[in-house]
Design goal:
291 residues, alpha/beta, Elongation Factor Tu (Ef-tu), domain 3, Rossmann fold, 2 domains, seven-stranded antiparallel sheet, seven-stranded mixed sheet, 16 strands, globular, FNR_nucleotide-bd, FAD, iron, Ferredoxin--NADP+ reductase, Cbr1-like_FAD-bd_dom
Length: 291
């Protein structure tokens, strides 16, 4: 069993947990993920690794309650245990494979949206530990949904944007990137992690700006080993699997429309399950999900 040592609510429906998982902590690197099960009957839920401590044997995850299974995880408290924690899975960030001395000559910008902010943190932290200070743009709908701000301030040059202008810069993350470039910032690499639609428009912009861009694909995953094929996506003219070939890919080659259409199939089923759990037989439909 994998005990939850710490649980905190970062924002509405977004929770941070520190989990005892020595083997995962010993082997993980920035960019990787793990799969958890709440109990023996539970579904396998992929979650990105927000941080890890090899000495303490812990990993830190961030989960957003958006479906039946993630809602169940969100209800867990410190002292509870997961039935399974499998990982690290996926390939580490390409940054960890490069010579840190060469990275010092590159100007890197991360663009993070929503809970996609969590997997950006260990990458920015790794760069800082190797003498590289990156720029990080965090986007959220409003001030209350900005997460991990204070921790980011210690490892990067941070820019916060909110859609409604309630905090930081006003507007989408793409506007912030455009503004930074207009202000004279020049970037050799962009790494975007967040909602599919955000990554799609970031890549559209960076292609126009001629900035190479890596995206971390948060597709549907079941087994995490490539056997089920649920995380299939098209990159250029090739079929790839996010769990074994990724999760990082060249953002300018990813077919985002196909990936988003595949996500909708799962999202609708998850939402039905959550509605049934929360409302039971009182839910009468007409929600746009069940119709």
């Amino acid at each position: 069993m994998f005990k939850i040592l710490e649980r905190n609510e970062l924002a509405a429906h977004i929770y941070q947990m520190v989990v005892e998982a020595p083997r995962v902590a010993a082997g993980c690197l920035p960019g990787q993920f793990l799969i958890v099960r709440v109990d023996e009957e539970g579904e396998r839920i992929p979650l990105t690794i927000c941080d890890y401590d090899r000495e303490k044997g812990t990993v830190e995850i961030v989960v957003q309650s958006i479906g039946a299974e993630t809602n169940q995880i969100a209800k867990m408290q410190a002292g509870d245990s997961f039935a399974d924690v499998v990982g690290p899975l996926g390939n580490p960030s390409d940054l960890t494979k490069e010579d840190p001395e060469e990275l010092k000559n590159k100007k890197i910008v991360f663009i993070a949206g929503g809970v996609g902010t969590a997997p950006v943190y260990p990458q920015a932290k790794w760069l800082k530990e190797h003498g590289v200070t990156a720029d990080v743009i965090i986007g959220a709908k409003n001030k209350d949904l900005v997460i991990l701000e204070e921790r980011f301030k210690t490892v990067c040059n941070l820019y916060v944007t909110t859609d409604d202008g309630s905090y930081g810069r006003s507007g989408m993350v793409t506007k912030c990137l455009e503004d930074l470039v207009a202000e004279g910032h020049q970037y050799d690499l962009c790494i975007a992690i967040g909602p599919m639609i955000m990554m799609k428009f970031v890549c559209k912009l960076t292609k126009e700006l001629n900035i190479p861009t890596i995206v971390s694909m948060n597709t549907i995953m079941v087994d995490g080993t490539g056997m089920c094929g649920a995380c299939r996506l098209t990159v250029g003219d090739q079929v790839k699997f996010a769990c074994v070939d990724g999760p990082e890919f060249d953002g300018h080659l990813v077919d985002f429309d196909q990936a988003m259409n595949r996500m909708k199939l799962y999202k609708n089923e998850e939402t039905r399950l959550k509605l049934a759990e929360e409302e039971g037989e009182t839910h009468k439909g007409h929600c746009g999900v069940c119709d």
